[in-house]
Amino acid sequence: MIQRRTLQLGAGMLMLSLASACSVLPEAEPITFYNLPSPQLTQNQAQPLPLSLRITTPDASYALQAPRIMVSPDENTINSYQGARWTDPNPALLREHLIQAFQQDGSFRTVTNENQALETDVHLYSDLRQYQTIYRAGTPQITVTLDAKLVDPVTRRVIAAKHFQLEQAIDDPQVPAVVKGMGAASDQLARELISWSRSSLADMAAVRVQQPD
């Protein structure tokens, strides 16, 4: 009987301690998820290139592989905005934005990603170096840095390579304004990538037109 009462007492004290522990645990931080604004490109009036393009997910550093919305208070540190997340990791987010932008522009016959595993004429590979807000002299600005390569998937030859860097000052440091600024910078990156891709692949497209069906 004494042993049974001891066990009951011990169980009661354990439950009490667990309840006390639960009461002092911090509440989970509320998180708001943000979509990158949809691309706002106009239809290219030129004839589409007779080429299919695959835009692969950019390679990125460990910090940028997360869905966090990144911010650098100075040149040497990188943090994230508290309570804010993208709906996808940064590289996948940018990849989908670029695909939509290329499709809106209509410069290529088809545009896909690597997940669809379709046969394509050209692959667009890239390294995402920066995709964040950076404070310079106390002023926040959106910074997007991308190293891109157009590659022939058959020969693995690099057709063209280029470094892209965009910087855009923002007046409001709050997250909604940052998200809007990231969308505008991503649109500008897409425009530059499209223009560069068209000019770099003009010769390849001309050969394709001359080939018999």
From TrEMBL:
This protein is called what? Answer: ABC-type transport auxiliary lipoprotein component domain-containing protein
Domain ABC-type transport auxiliary lipoprotein component residues, every copy? 34-192
Question: What organism is listed for this UniProt entry?
Answer: marine sediment metagenome
Lineage of the species this protein comes from: unclassified sequences, metagenomes, ecological metagenomes
InterPro entries cross-referenced by the UniProt entry: ABC_trans_aux
Per its UniProt record, what Gene3D superfamilies does this chain match? Answer: ABC-type transport auxiliary lipoprotein component (3.40.50.10610)
